[in-house]
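Tutorial sheet, problem 5. The two components below are modelled jointly, 781 residues in total.
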Amino acid sequence: MSRVAVLKGGRSLERQVSLRSGARVQDALARLGHDVVPIDVGVDLIERLRAEAPEVCFVALHGRDGEDGTVQELLEILDLPYTGSGVPACARAMDKVLTKHMLVEAGIPTPEFFAFTQMAFRELGAAETLPAIEQRLDFPIVVKPSSQGSALGIKFARSAGDVPAALVSAFSYDARVLLERYVKGRDLAVSVLDGDGGPRALPVVEAVPREEDFYDFEARYEIGRTEFVCPAELPDGVAERAAELALATYDMLGLYGFARVDLMLDGEGELYVLEANPIPGLTDTSLLPMAAEAADIGFDDLVAQILELALARAPRV
Amino acid sequence: MSPEARPPSRSTSRDLERYAGLFASRTRVMKSSAMRDIMAVTTRPEVISLAGGLPDTSSFPPETFAAITSRIAEQACAKALQYGPTEGLPETKECIAEVMAAEGMRVDRDDMIVTAGGQQVIDLVTKTLIDPGDVIVAEGPTYPGAVPVFHAYQADVVQIDMDAEGMRVDLLEETLDRLERDGRRPKFIYTVPSFQNPAGVTMSLPRRKRLVEVAAERELLVLEDNPYGLLRYEGEAPEPLYALDGGVYVMYLGTFSKILSPGIRVGWVVAPPPVLEKINLGKQEADLCTSTLSQLMVQAYFEIGDWRGYVRSLTGIYRARRDAMLAALADHFPPQAEWTRPGGGLFIWATLPDFIDTDDLLVRALRDNVAFVPGSGAYLDGRGHNSMRLNFSGSGEEGIREGVRRIGEAIREQLELYGTLTGELEAVRVEPDEADAGPADRDVGGRVVELRRREGRPRRAGGA
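Model answer (structure tokens):
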């Protein structure tokens, strides 16, 4: 029995998803017998936390502020234990470019990429390098903002003519964007949950588009347009390999508590890590709860375990 | 809170997948959930929203409101609390006739049904006429609020380009010929002829006459959606389609939302009797009758208030706001942008170079706490991605100026970036005399709403 503040909402573009995650977590915490304090994160966050004096915070925020370490930093200063990853891990995972550099260094396969800031184009003439990049990555090229959590701002450039507009779109979301080689294949997600025996990978979820438009990223997140299969039906050894890569990514970034690692499986059976989400969705359509359930961990148990891990974590010194 | 008081536990994800198989195909939404989430962010209090379509209800006199409600309490309490006839109260129909007369229309009280706002008319007419795969002809861009309705009935929507004189009726005829050759007959033509939402343009009288002729020649129904006709800030009003046709092929949609209150939800439809009979059945199925209380509020207001005076005051407020927005656009939008110059209504439609995607631009603009409606929501065929709808009725003049300034800055940033990326800097640089040009020089008239058909991303309502 603890007094738990559920931090949700906030100012990010994923506010609505976060409100849904938060509401579901609140219900679970109440069923578990905790004293729940819901907080829609805004300018009065510190004031609210001081007034409510929770023993622990459940961070159900997605995207900017909540998932990039900003809110976690504030909670550290207030000496409040919180769920999920710490400040440095959040900062690393929310930065897709940094994550990918680290993956390359660690020898974990990730699609080849190049990253730029808006400044590089403005002041260093980076546009001159585009033809070379296009040749190297081959079309279609995926263009995406470095720090956007959901599929927002992701564009496919089918030819060189599409690249500038795709970059302009991606720069609407972030000052840094990446151009990435497109891996055609199956879309997999491996959720990781910490526990007594250390982090474990949950069964693989596959997103299967119902319509034959692989270029439509938005379709993935629409109920009815994408079917989620868990555990994914995969060739021998692929699920094990995906779990191994997800755990390696989790360790490499220093994630804690739980996370979700997104991967692609290409036609040759090669797996590539795309990114890691330090606070994946916890809504009734989200993939982590789906994977947990496939491993016989109900939503309440999942929430209980995440909370327990928060209280067990040694404070940062 | 005790555990007993909690709602039952929520469905699990697995359950939800099970339900997903049960949803009707018409529940599949056009707009991505991501886009809906972004639009939710536009309602934050610190955001200057040029995205809404809200009338300024703060200008309605509270003492009039009090007088209306106490009059109903004194004179018609039991009636106001009771069901009413499906077609509406006779006294409310008198008010409707008065409003239509103000726009030059004479109407038989038996030819109308009072509805829960204008939106219900779009729903009822579509429900009455459309089987899955049937064709609706609409303007391009069309009213974004009609798009989900057409989609829900799995209509195939064909959109006709507009110019400064409204729907291109020549293109309409070409399209009707083409549909006929393909063996497909459209069921009705949906149009907002005056101060169109979202384009802000008004159909000229010759086009109106021709449209009515085309409808008669081909025996096609027209749904004339006219919420803004009385919000005219300059010039003479062309006759409504309904007046030109005499109610044979034209169905008319009216509403009190923009001249009294959107919150009371009272609109109406006028249609030929056989069509009206079917609409009446649809209305019965949907909600039995429009709120009696709301209908009596209209009646009481027309008796004790000065509705014409209120419309005049609204017109004054909105005219000043429109002028503020047009001036701000001329000051802050780059020369590559084009926009319409509406003589009334609530909206301006602006179009940017093809390489700017206004869905993404909105996200960039939200960082500066300003919002608009991206143009993609006004098309069902993937166009509109470089356009935006700007509302000038819901914000004060200062907010409009500042909001337009911020959007203009975000556009300039993207233009510059694009210029850097393509090496086409000259396309981006503002020539000094161009920058000095006043709004008149920048009014591009006919070209403003004509959009090239974009390749890729075809979208259609329904599964056809």
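Marking note: The two ends of chain A are 26 Å apart (CA to CA). Full credit if you identified this.
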